[in-house]
Specification:
Layout (H helix, E strand, L loop, with lengths): L1 H4 L5 E5 L5 H8 L3 E7 L6 H7 L4 E4 L12 E7 L8 H11 E11 L6 E2 L4 E2 L9 H13 L6 H14 L5 H8 L3 E6 L1 H8 L3 H6 L2 H11 L2 E7 L2
Parallel strand pairs: 1-2, 1-4, 2-3, 4-5
Antiparallel strand pairs: 5-9, 6-7, 8-9
Helix pairs in contact: 5-6, 8-10
């Protein structure tokens, strides 16, 4: 999707690059691509640095990104912003490192999303912590994933996700992004057509309904241009 929004060969940054799948895909498509993640990331950043030497940087969440102003033509953030406690600061940094005509592509779940993606459990991110409904849905999700079905295991997993995930409504996210960016496009319907197993569903739905449904099935998929 990023390739359809920016010219291959341009400078590309994957913000929250994790294990590096998107970074390596961008390099394969001809982008001059780099990745950045926080220093306390849970995955093996060393092996990623070996696979793509000189392409990965680490930073502290309270520090500036280690790049000069206007360094990148496109920035991606795939399933990242729901884990950022102070997104306004992160967005200000991303605006700084983008060129004036650059683009930010962000994909992340919102409060309206039906299934909590980290747990695979429906609606638990919208329920009171420790409630009976939450416990039942967590047990069901663990059963379907072949994990131990106990209240203790489910509660521990859910508590970890709640500590690391900050759910906000679609309207709140639009306000937050609007502090540093202007909306360029919404791509939920395209995501639905291209990614879900029943992709034909997305092709027969009206564009507006496809976006509404995709937001609830998978979350937001938005592109943004920097404000002056």
């Amino acid at each position: 999707m990023a390739a359809s929004l920016a010219r291959p060969g341009g400078r590309f940054l994957d913000f929250g690059c994790g294990r590096g799948g998107l970074l390596e895909a961008a390099l394969a498509q001809g982008f001059d691509a780099f990745g950045v993640d926080v220093k306390n990331a849970e995955w093996d950043m060393f092996s990623l640095g070996v696979r793509v030497p000189g392409r990965v940087a680490l930073f502290s969440p309270d520090a500036s990104l280690p790049f000069a102003d206007g360094s990148f033509d496109v920035v991606t953030a795939n399933q990242v912003f729901e884990h950022v406690p102070e997104p306004e600061k992160a967005l200000a940094e991303l605006r700084r490192v983008l060129t004036p005509e650059g683009i930010l592509l962000a994909l992340f779940p919102v409060r309206e999303t039906w299934v909590e993606p980290h747990l695979g459990a429906p609606l638990v991110h919208r329920l009171p912590e420790g409630s009976k409904a939450e416990r039942r849905l967590l047990r069901l999700a663990r059963l379907l994933r072949g994990r131990p079905v106990t209240d203790a295991a489910a509660a521990e997993e859910c508590a970890h996700v709640r500590r690391a995930t900050f759910y906000r409504s679609e309207a709140e996210w639009r306000r937050i992004f609007g502090t540093a960016f202007r909306l360029h496009g919404r791509h939920e319907a395209a995501w639905l057509r291209d990614r879900l197993p029943g992709a034909s569903l997305g092709r027969i739905l009206p564009e507006g309904l496809g976006g509404w449904l995709s937001l609830r099935l998978a979350g937001a998929c938005w592109s943004w241009r920097p404000l002056p």
